[in-house]
Design a protein that fits this description.
CATH topology of the largest domain in chain B: MetI-like fold
CATH superfamily of chain A: P-loop containing nucleotide triphosphate hydrolases
Number of domains of chain B: 4
CATH architecture of chain A: 3-Layer(aba) Sandwich
Strand order of the largest sheet of chain B: 1-4
Helix content of chain A: 25-40%
Order of helices and strands of chain B: HEHHHHHHHHEEHEEEHHHHHHHHHH
Structural class of chain B: mainly alpha
Helix content of chain B: 55-70%
Number of strands of chain A: 12
CATH class of the largest domain in chain B: Mainly Alpha
Radius of gyration of chain A: 19 Å
Structural class of chain A: alpha/beta
Number of helices of chain A: 12
Distance between the termini of chain A: 36 Å
Oligomer: heterodimer
Number of helices of chain B: 20
CATH class of chain A: Alpha Beta
Strand content of chain A: 15-25%
Shape of chain A: globular
Strand order of the largest sheet of chain A: 8-9-10-5-11-12
Shape of chain B: elongated
CATH superfamily of the largest domain in chain B: MetI-like
CATH topology of chain A: Rossmann fold
Order of helices and strands of chain A: HHEEEEEHEEHEHHHHEHEHEEHH
Largest interface: A-B, 32 and 22 residues
CATH architecture of the largest domain in chain B: Orthogonal Bundle
């Protein structure tokens, strides 16, 4: 990371230098299974998403203000914070989903892979294919499972049936859904259970082969078992994808993420290793929030 | 206590809703039941031999030989009716008798000239028949039986005259004898009255100038110009009505001055003297044998063209016209409605222009349909068609377009609601995958909104198929050829039943046809709607993944 950019980062970030490979040596256990603390840190160190003094306003109301942070590839970054703090707004800014809301304007820079996505020449189609998104509520289209997953690739112009089948299978396998649905791909996606639907949405997002996967509270509508499966899935995916997850559930953030950012009132308060955020935060607000004294 | 009260309230609510459903069903049945019953009588009824005759002659249906046998059988029974009437006529219809006598006298003169008799002989014979003629005419006019006897006696003296034997003048004596016999049995003062009453009775029995009768024209009579007069009662229910009219005379009587008139019925037989009275009992007892009513299924009602303004035949062209107008109208309504709705939901801003347009659409839905009819005439027929180089005359296309304008508000509103109710998360999901707004609409929003849009289709379909006023000036006719292109006017079920109800005296004589038309229209709409509802259910199930 270039030196000039680092200057803009919060001091806590600089002190701990989270751009370095993960130094954590503990192992996480989810559902009794173990996984290495760091799968990707060795190789991927340059930021995929670079935000510099990024602000977004809804009319005159501020959504997020002066966000400056880097999000690193092949890892899970969690954004936590109280309701209305702008974490979802920031997440949706990364693939410009906020464009749908009238009277939105932005300031500052938000780079994905080095491109300013708020440049007027940005190809939204390409951007959204690079930056996939999974929503809070499972939102499979009212189509068959196959058509749901094939939706993205066919948008990219894949017409070949065999190729589509390959992509669908790969994506469903990657989303750990293949074994459950391989026999009835023609079935409507709405017939699946909530957890399956959310994994289908992940598969649908993966089918466009994105680099970044944005997850907006992906488990808030699911029961603990389905949540566990999604979290497992995130662990598997983080070796290949850059995952940004917004969550209300701090245990979940602690379980799945390597780095965590704490937002409050539209501002980035603290951004650090997850272990640090939860055990030894630098800011009082963060500590209040993670210990439950906030609000 | 309170809990119990709440429980009872719940029960009352359940019962009330259940009752209202039952009530609604009953009301529906009460409305539809009689209509369907009467309408179905256009297809299912007791057809008489006259019906089969008509079918054979006008539509070429049925077995010719069987029909011949049947006609011969009925004619045998009818023969007695003819004979009774003729016998009576000989004593009553003095005008006709005088005419007959004069005719014979003229014919005889002609014959004499052809025979080239000597001049003296000719004058003598001619004078003789002239005297006979005058005596007979005097006898016909006379109201005194003794005088008639005397006159006829004088006439009959000449019967033995050898010069009249074997000539055409011989018929005069037969007439004279029959008249004498008949005159002995009737009240001579009532000649005129009897003649008029007989004319009326014959009108009901055979046919009058404008109305068909019970048995149809007598054999050998030249065919009437109106096709409907050439057949008797084709349906047994019709025959029953005519029989009733034949047997009973109705008139309004003032019982007390100033009071409303009272309808009185008395046997028609009483209008006639003794010798004709058996006719009425004979017709009453043998009506079945003269008409042979038989259970008939006339399904061709749905296919045939009509004859004499729906007196005979079916409603084939009307069904075809209704379907054409509906289909062409839907071809305009569906795409226009969906596109407008998509624009209103997906693209339109919330400015005051859009608000005015929205208000306009809502207002349009409440405009009386006749206004659309005049609009269609003024805009499509008289303005747009000449502009595009078409003849400015009412046609299917203009009617369909007018109906499309009429139902567009319904379609737009239904589609708008449907598109609006598609969860925003579907759109977001699609956009997040990189789809354009257009592709999102086509691939995700539209299929998800399809059930609601189909509801709009159902609503506008029923409206288009059933409307009368908008097509009054733009494309409907009550009579006319079957349309060959969209630029021809057409008959429709809705306009046809309207026309039969208001404009057509004949229509009132065949209510089963009018009901048949209405019921067919209802059934047609039900079938089209059923298809749309089935489609909607399938789409819905598919979307839901069942």
């Amino acid at each position: 990371m270039p030196e000039e950019e680092r200057k803009d980062m919060p001091t806590s970030v600089l002190k701990n230098d989270i751009t370095k490979p993960n130094v954590r040596t503990t192992t996480f256990t989810i559902d009794g299974r173990e996984r290495p603390a760091n799968l990707a840190g060795e190789t991927c160190t340059c930021a995929v998403i670079h935000s510099e003094n990024f602000s977004l306003h809804y009319g005159s109301k501020a959504g997020v203000q002066n966000i400056t942070m880097d999000i690193y590839p092949c890892s899970v970054t969690a954004i936590i914070g109280p309701s209305g703090c702008g974490k979802s707004t920031f997440l949706r800014s990364i693939n410009r989903m906020n464009d749908l809301i009238p009277h939105v304007h932005t300031e500052g820079k938000l780079l994905v892979d080095g491109h300013d996505i708020y440049d007027k020449h940005t190809n939204l189609v390409n951007l959204r294919q690079q930056v996939g998104m999974v929503f809070q509520k499972p939102n499979p289209f009212p189509k068959s499972i196959f058509d749901n997953v094939a939706y993205g690739p066919s948008l990219q112009g894949v017409r070949n049936k065999g190729e589509l089948q390959n992509v669908v299978e790969q994506s469903l396998r990657a989303a750990a859904l293949w074994e459950e649905v391989k026999d009835d791909l023609k079935k409507s996606a709405l017939a699946l259970s909530g957890g399956q639907q959310q994994r289908l949405c992940i598969a649908r997002a993966l089918a466009t082969k994105p680099r970044v996967l944005l997850m907006d509270e992906p488990c808030s509508a699911l029961d603990p078992i389905a949540t566990g499966r999604i979290e497992d899935l995130m662990h598997q995916l983080q070796s290949t994808y850059t995952i940004v997850i917004v969550t209300h559930n701090m245990q979940q953030a602690a379980r799945v993420s390597e780095r965590a950012a704490f937002f409050c009132l539209g501002e980035l308060i603290e951004y650090d290793w997850t272990s640090k955020i939860f055990s030894n935060p630098a800011k009082k607000e963060t500590e209040d929030y993670v210990t439950g004294r906030f609000g | 206590m309170k809990l119990r009260f709440r429980g009872q309230l719940d029960r009352v609510f359940t019962i009330a809703t259940g009752l209202s459903v039952v009530l609604l069903t009953l009301v529906l049945l009460a409305i539809l039941g009689p209509m369907v019953y009467r309408g179905s009588s256009a297809v299912f009824f007791q057809g008489t031999v006259e019906f089969r005759k008509m079918q054979k002659n006008l539509f070429g249906r049925g077995d010719e030989q069987a029909l011949h046998a049947e006609v011969a059988e009925t004619e045998k029974v009818r023969q007695q009716v003819y004979e009774m009437i003729d016998a009576f006529k000989k004593g009553v219809d003095v005008e006709a008798l005088s005419e007959q006598v004069r005719q014979i006298h003229r014919q005889f003169g002609q014959d004499l000239r052809d025979r080239n008799l000597p001049a003296g002989e000719y004058t003598r014979l001619r004078e003789l028949t002239r005297q006979i003629r005058d005596k007979l005419e005097a006898a016909f006019r006379s109201q005194d039986i003794n005088e008639i006897k005397r006159l006829v006696g004088e006439v009959l003296k000449d019967e033995s005259n050898p010069q009249l034997k074997g000539t055409s003048a011989e018929k005069l004596f037969a007439i004279a004898r029959q008249f004498l016999q008949a005159a002995g049995q009737i009240d001579l003062g009532k000649h005129q009255e009897y003649a008029l009453a007989l004319q009326e009775a014959e009108g009901i029995l055979f046919h009058s100038e404008a109305l068909p009768g019970l048995l149809g024209p007598r054999p050998g009579e030249p065919p009437a110009p109106l096709v409907m007069l050439r057949y008797g009662a084709t349906r047994w229910d019709q025959a029953q009505t005519l029989l009733d009219r034949f047997l009973w005379v109705e008139h309004w009587v003032e019982e007390k001055p100033g009071e409303p008139l009272v309808l009185q019925r008395k046997p028609r037989a009483e209008l006639f003297p003794e010798p004709l009275r058996p006719l009425f009992t004979y017709v009453e007892q043998n009506a079945g044998k003269m008409l042979h009513p038989r259970r008939t299924v006339y399904w061709q009602f749905l296919r045939d063209d009509n004859v004499n303004s729906h007196y005979f035949g079916g409603i084939g062209p009307e069904i075809l016209g209704t379907m054409l107008i509906t289909v062409v109208g839907m071809l305009f309504v569906i795409p226009l409605g969906i596109i407008s709705a998509a624009y209103l939901v997906e693209c339109a801003s919330d400015g005051w222009t859009m608000r005015i347009i929205r208000m306009g659409i809502n207002t349009l839905a409440g405009v009386p349909s006749i206004v659309f009819g005049l609009f269609g005439l003024a805009f499509f027929v008289l303005f747009l068609f000449p502009l595009l180089g078409f003849a400015p005359r009412p046609c299917i296309l203009a009617a369909s377009m007018t109906l499309a304008v009429l139902t567009l508000p319904v379609m737009i509103r239904a589609s708008e609601e449907a598109i609006r109710s598609v969860p925003a998360t579907y759109k977001e999901g699609s956009l997040a995958l990189g789809a354009s707004r257009f592709h999102t609409f086509i691939a995700v929003t539209f299929p998800a909104a399809l059930p609601g849009i189909l509801t709009g289709v159902i609503l506008s379909l029923s409206r288009i198929a059933g409307e009368t006023a908008p097509i009054l000036f733009t494309g409907a006719v009550s009579l006319g050829a079957v349309p060959r292109s969209l630029f021809d006017p057409t008959r429709t079920l809705s306009y046809g039943s309207y026309d039969m109800a208001v404009g057509d005296r004949l229509g009132m004589m065949v209510p089963h046809n009018q009901y048949g038309m209405v019921v067919t229209l209802v059934l047609l709409i039900l079938i089209l709607n059923g298809a749309a509802i089935m489609l909607r259910t399938r789409v819905f199930k598919k979307l839901r993944g069942h």
